[in-house]
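To whoever is on call:

I kicked off a structure prediction for a single chain this morning and the downstream step that reads the tokens threw a length-mismatch warning. I double-checked the sequence; it's 266 residues and nothing unusual in it as far as I can see. Pasting both halves so you can look.
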Amino acid sequence: MSEMHEIDYQIYGDDMQFVEIELDPGEATVAEAGGMMYMEDGIEMETIFGDGSQENKGFLGSLIGAGKRLLTGESLFMTVFYNQANVKRRVAFAAPFPGKILPIHLAEAGGELIAQKDSFLCGAKGVSVGIAFQKKLGSGFFGGEGFILQRLEGNGWVFVNASGTLHEKHLEPGEIIRVDTGCMVAFQPSVNYDIEYVGKIKSAIFGGEGMFFATLRGPGHIWMQSLPLSRLAGRIVAAAPQVSGGGKGEGSILGAVGNLLDGDNR
């Protein structure tokens, strides 16, 4: 594992958050491409190929790291922000959707964190962003978000996106909780994770909760989110035909009547 950079940070905002990271001279932070909000003079950017965890690990190592990122739906490249000045400088990264930014010190979490794919925002230089497959290929595949997870490794700070309200829970040894696969944000590696079939076809089809749950067994900490981006996007797509008329009484019969009166129903 490469040397981790120690960084200081401050999170601003309530439901539209961004994190400002303070870098000492020579320190660096790594982030997903497109996440930067602003940076002060003296910060230099460098795009790297792979997961950003190590330098000089050769083309093959970088290729493997990039392949892992591609499987989680991320870009093949990451961006490193170096403080080249001789004084402290700041760089900020914004969350891509409404919610919370979860700061986790990996050393305190056991050196590793399993997180929902697309959840990593930024972290100290040296963080490894890999993949963690669900053990049962079939249930993982049909479980949607729970199939491929991100494995964050290192001993410094990482910052993870959570959509909606963030809820943290500690599971005692043997304690079990079942979570919608989209509502899971992250958990410690000590937590046993599996995807479980609901068991009743009628409940799965008509209950609206999906056919699979993420089953987590303690001990360890887990973090959950109240509004998965996939759920929000699904509601927006479902409502799109009703609002496409553009205006009066969207989502009701009045919308159609209004369109007829306006001559919009062509």
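Update from on-call: the warning came from a stale cache, not from the record. Cleared it. Sanity check on the structure: Helices lie at 58-71, 137-142, 201-206, 229-243, 253-262.
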